[in-house]
Amino acid sequence: MLIMDAVLETYDATGFVLWPVADQPADHLPVLSGRLSMREVGTAMAVLTNCNKSDDAVGARGPQDGTWQVSQLLSADRVIAPGGIRIQDTSTGVTAPPGCCFGLENWRDWLEWMNGEEPWLGHDPTPLAERNETTIRLWPDMEHPDGLPIELPLARLPNLLSSVHTRLVAFLDSVEEWANLHAPPLGDALVAKLDEDLAINAPLRGHQS
Q1: pTM for this predicted structure
Q2: Identity of the highest mean pLDDT range in 63-67, 129-133, 198-202
Q3: Phi and psi at residue 136, in whole multiples of 5°?
Q4: Angle, helix 187-197 to helix 66-74, in steps of 10 degrees
Q5: CB 107 within 8 A of CB 80
Q6: Are 144 and 133 in contact (CB under 8 A)?
Q7: Degrees (nearest 5) of the Cα angle 9, 30, 28?
Q8: Does residue 54 contact residue 72 with C-beta atoms inside 8 Å?
């Protein structure tokens, strides 16, 4: 069984104190969905706000609270979100985690496979992908290509990405609920910013229902 998830790398939430955050999973890659607790959403927001602070705000002194922290994200030219798309094949136990520098903001690039293109999927680890007319064969790390690849049928890719899309929309609803608790003056602006910069609510191009 193939499972595709949108995950967020949470190292930047370590030691965060401006609002409640959850204990982090061992791999620091929680799945973004509507099933997160408010503390888990708080962890995601700690990561996103820390990663998108302006240079002037890094190390800033003076009063800082949750609303100030969220305002830093709103001033970013484009939100970046460490993490990305993770694929797991439960039948073989092979997992392909997201590569560095191919953040969640680029998740829709996976649809390029449907147009005969090959998207760049990041590095450290750097995936190795081979595509034929019907299948993508994906090794999690090109430096260790001797293990089993993930066999991803192209015909299944739109539906797998659709499941990611659905869970991201639900995550955005949870962000709205969280913002009403921790940054109510900025809730609407926060949801709109994440929706636009992470391309969440827009129709999924190429999906066949």
Answers
A1: 0.92
A2: 198-202
A3: -105, 125
A4: 40
A5: no
A6: no
A7: 45
A8: yes
Contact yes or no for 147/187 (Cβ under 8 A): no
Specify the amino acid at residue 123. H
- Kindly report the backbone phi and psi dihedral angles of residue 195, in degrees, each rounded to the nearest multiple of 5, phi listed first: -60, -45
Beta carbons within 10 angstroms of residue 186's beta carbon? 19
User: What is the torsion angle, in degrees rounded to the nearest 10, for the CA atoms of residue 89, residue 24, residue 73 and residue 126?
Assistant: -40
pLDDT higher than threshold 90 for residue 136: yes
> Residues 6 or more apart from 21 whose CB is under 8 A from it?
13, 39, 42, 43, 46
- 60: pLDDT strictly greater than 60: no
Section 169-191 average pLDDT: 97
CA atoms 140, 143, 148, 151: torsion sign = positive
Per-residue pLDDT tens over the stretch 109-119:
999 998 889 99
Render pLDDT for 77-128 as a digit per residue (tens, 0 to 9): 999 999 999 999 999 999 999 989 999 999 999 999 988 899 999 998 899 9
63 phi, psi to nearest 5 deg: -60, 130
Closest CA to 82 of 109, 122, 112, 111: 122
**SS3 sequence of 130-193:** EECCCEEEEECCCCCCCCCCEEEEHHHHHHHHHHHHHHHHHHHHHHHHHHHHHCHHHHHHHHHH
